[in-house]
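debug: dumping io for the single-chain case to check the tokenizer round-trip. Nothing else runs in this session.
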Amino acid sequence: MQNDPELSGKYLGTISQDFVRVSDTLKEASYQIRTAGFDFPIFAICKEAQPVGQLLLDQKMNGTAWNYFASFLDEFLQRGLVTADKKEDFEAAYKDPDEFCCLFVIDEQFTNFVFIPYPED
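debug: decoded output
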């Protein structure tokens, strides 16, 4: 589970621009998800409505390029987005949620995980 090089050129610019604006909200949401007893917070991001997670930040209301949906590993397992045989690989690749945000980028036929560091305080 690596950051895909294709992601860098095509998506990373708009994701980075958004992330500067929404990182504090995502970091707090990650903390709240973990405090509620759910491991491995994941934020699905897309430009269209989709069924994964709960809408956290609407692109129209927040002036961002992406919509942000809060979720966690168990939902991804239930939906088959991470298969049971890949669960350990995902957990091993998952970065410290206090330092990195796990994004699941959804755009038309492209989907991928990316870990982006939270800005230093």
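debug: round-trip ok. Residues 1-5 have pLDDT under 50 and may be disordered.
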